[in-house]
Amino acid sequence: MSQQFEAIFSEYGGLLSRVASSYEANEALQQELLQEIAVAVWQAIGRFNGDSSIKTYLLKIAHNRAVTHVASQVKRIDTETYPEGADAFIGHHATPELSASQQQSLNTLLGAVRELPLQSRQVLTLSLEGLSYDEIADVCGLTKSHVGVILKRAKASITKGQTNE
Amino acid sequence: MNNNHNDLSALWQAQPVKTIDVEEVKRTFFAERKKQRLFMVLDFLGVVPPMVLIWWKWSTFSLVAGGMILAMLLLCLPILFYQLWLRRVTAFGGDLQTRGYLESLIKQMKNNARIAWMTKHSCWVAIGFLLIFNVVLYLQGELTSSEQMVKSTVFLGISAVVLVFVYRWASRRQQLALSRLERFEAMQQ
């Protein structure tokens, strides 16, 4: 059982980490959310019945966990201050592989994604992870056409943000 | 358009990622499971005292005293089942579609706020209930000795102090549920 989880985390850890980063800009909270997501995956994986791909199933659990996490942070955000914005994120994660311009673009993208309303953020990031409209609709509980409309708007908003930079 | 999407997707997936601490996940998972089971046992234990009283001591109660304890038990049972249902939703609701999940969270927060409100106001109702309970027993002639009078007064005093803390705790729970509800409703927009 434990080995199965380690294999899942090893294969999809990056995917789950990107979900966490789309909800939390703060380093420590991002790691905390990632751990919470991993626990939620562990709890739910026994109920996976193969109706969808494992990737879609994990994304559903991850986004739901993130939604709960964000709401539970209300009290902490009210009383504590964290470095805001994507600069803090990039500053700590900068790797030699990323060129300066790529880092700048990623910085802008992350900032813009976190500014989006929940539904748009979810649809856009799922699409960026390569999910089809059907799979996105399944994760979010939307119709396929609704996914198309939301995605179009979210991309327009992101592009506008990048143009303004 | 498609190239733009691919570029954006490549950029998104190029972001540095964090590592999951699997050992910590295991520890949290088992601790959480233990905690949930303990909470369920405690939920059940909450209704055990009135059940035991009714089962073993029924013949020693007057009709009024027995009826009041039975009424209290009947009031507690729906709350117990609701608590157990909530724990089930919390434990098994994580793989719902996000829209449905959000709706269930909103419903849950509304119910939590309602329960906290009920708990808060049940504190002064409970004090009133205990006061009436003792007065009724006194008028029925069931509190005869001064020792019984002292015991019931001390019990009433201790209950009042405990219930003040419960009132404050429930009030904070209500505020928390309402602020989370607000947040979930904003997410649903």
Question: How would you characterize this protein structure?
Answer:
Chain A is an all-alpha fold and 165 residues long. Helix content of chain A is 78%, strand content 0%. The N and C termini of chain A lie far apart (48 Å). Mean pLDDT of chain A is 83; it is low at 77-94. Chain B has 2 domains: 16-92; 97-189. Chain B is elongated, with a radius of gyration of 25 Å. The mean pLDDT of chain B is 83. The interface between A and B is large, with 62 and 43 residues.
Number of strands of chain B: 0
Shape of chain A: globular
Largest interface pair:
A-B, 62 and 43 residues
**Main beta-sheet strand count, sense and barrel state of chain B:** none
Oligomer: heterodimer
Q: With helices defined by DSSP (H or I, 4 residues minimum), what is the helix count of chain B?
A: 5
Class by alpha and beta content of chain B: mainly alpha
Share of residues in helices of chain B: over 70%
Unreliable segments of chain B (pLDDT under 50, ≥5 consecutive)? none
The total tally of domains of chain A equals 2
Overall pLDDT of chain A: 83
Radius of gyration of chain B, whole Å? 25 Å
The CATH architecture of the largest domain in chain A is Orthogonal Bundle
Summarize the helices and strands and which ones pair or pack.
The complex is a heterodimer of chains A (165) and B (189).
Chain A: H1 2-23, H2 27-44, H3 54-72, H4 74-79, H5 86-93, H6 100-115, H7 118-128, H8 133-140, H9 144-164
Helix pairs in contact in A: 1-2, 1-3, 2-3, 3-8, 5-6, 6-9, 7-8, 7-9, 8-9
Chain B: H1 2-13, H2 22-57, H3 63-92, H4 98-139, H5 146-188
Helix pairs in contact in B: 2-3, 3-4, 4-5
